[in-house]
Design a protein that fits this description.
This protein is of the alpha+beta class. Helix content is 42%, strand content 25%. The protein has 6 helices and 6 strands. Helix 2 crosses helix 3 and helix 4 packs antiparallel against helix 5. The longest helix has 14 residues. The chain is globular and about 55 Å long. 19% of the residues are buried. This is Transcription repressor NadR. InterPro entries: 3H_dom_sf, 3H_domain, HTH_11, NadR, WH-like_DNA-bd_sf, WH_DNA-bd_sf. It holds the Pfam family 3H. It comes from Clostridium sardiniense.
Length: 169
């Protein structure tokens, strides 16, 4: 299969699939390296396809009528689960995490955490890999893009995050 056909097939699989697909899985299917898949995804993005890389694999960004808000928060590593659970409790999605590094500028990672299973997977990866969250670079301060079904749920998310002391004033 030539590279053009492979990219068309990758795009079709992403459109048809409701969940994320790992680059390594694509690489196995097409008998290429993961780096070739990364290049294919970059080319597909350059052509205007809204492909997002999440910790669980690639997905197509769905155009939805959701309310979005950017919220600055601060907490230690032990409070990650609590913060994320507050957001999903009201139907929110934690789309990303952003830190403002003094030397490198903005560092952003896509999360797309939308349910308890996503939180469990995220926390398990975090613990099993002995990783540190991006917020360790900024003494716990970080920013999330959060989306919700409506303003009412977004207000509930913001209120509880503020009441728990997570929101940076």
């Amino acid at each position: 299969m030539d590279s053009k056909k492979r990219r068309e097939d990758i795009l079709l699989k992403l459109i048809e699939n409701n969940g994320p697909i790992k680059g390594t899985d694509f690489a196995k299917v097409y008998g290429v390296t993961r780096q070739i898949i990364v290049k294919d995804i970059a080319i597909l993005r350059a052509r205007g396809n809204k492909i997002i890389a999440t910790p669980d694999g690639y997905i197509i960004a769905k155009e939805e009528n959701r309310v979005k808000s950017i919220i600055a928060v601060s907490h230690d590593s032990d409070s990650i689960r609590e913060e994320l659970e507050i957001v999903i409790k009201y139907g929110g999605i934690i789309e990303d995490v952003i830190v403002e590094h003094p030397m490198y500028g903005e560092i952003k990672a896509m999360l797309m955490i939308k349910n308890l299973n996503d939180i469990n997977n995220f926390v398990d990866k975090y613990k099993n890999n002995h990783a540190k969250p991006l917020s360790v670079l900024t003494n716990g301060v970080h920013i999330h893009t959060i989306s919700a079904d409506d303003e009412v749920n977004m207000d509930l998310i913001k209120k509880e995050l503020k009441d728990k002391g997570f929101v940076v004033s």
